[in-house]
Amino acid sequence: MTDNLQSLVRVEDGVLRIAVATAEHGTSLSPDGMRQGIDALRSAGPEIGAVLLVGEGANFCAGGNVRGFAAAEDRSAHLFDIANLFHDFVRALDAIAVPVVAAVHGWAAGAGMSIVLHADIAFAGPGTKMRAAYPSIGFTPDGGMSWTLPRVVGLARARELIITDAVISAEEGVRLGLLSRIVGDDEIQGEALRIARTLAHGPTAAYAGIHRLVNDSVHRSLSEQMDAEAASISAASTTPTGIEGVNAFVEKRRPDWSLGAGADQQ
Questions:
Q1: Among 163, 9, 14, 27, residue whose Cα is nearest residue 89
Q2: Do 188 and 210 share a structural domain?
Q3: Would the pTM of this model clear 0.85, i.e. be above it?
């Protein structure tokens, strides 16, 4: 059975909503969701101000389709193709440079945990659980987990969490910085969508600049990063978004970010 194509990706009020998993195959990573997500992310224009990642089913994403792995005639080739499709999605998600919000419920395991680590803001329910999951089937990580997790929790803790395949509760996920905030089970998607909509109508050019600075910081010294910050804030001051933000502050009014929408990207 093929995932319902229309349900996996849609745009709502400036928010690009992508379902990374469906109830099919035990809420495993959806190849259709990845393909549609890649196309939508790569073709997104200035009308997209935020991305919302969700899972449709009992979990956010319980990992890869292990039964599909087992049934493959050439497991190595099959896993290589699946990993590269997943990685193209992650690359597209990273490149879009707008805030990424995740609505995490149930399990975020394996590929699901990898996806959560790429979100700027991740909401979770009280019963949400995360785990690397790869060692349990004799695999190594994909989706960038071996790159993102050490940057969140440090090298030693990342190795521990992946190697021991520890189950991480929602509370522990917040404490470690893997998740942003816990909300009620029936509020997760609503709260995540509300925040995504707010961000989509915010100073999107500033968000893009923040995204670039934070991502590039891992390759720079402190001095190099401050040089980049000086160049970025100076450039931001002359964009429609920067001009409107300063003017609104001085005039003691709420900024109208739509005045700079699209123009900053030209």
A1: 9
A2: no
A3: yes
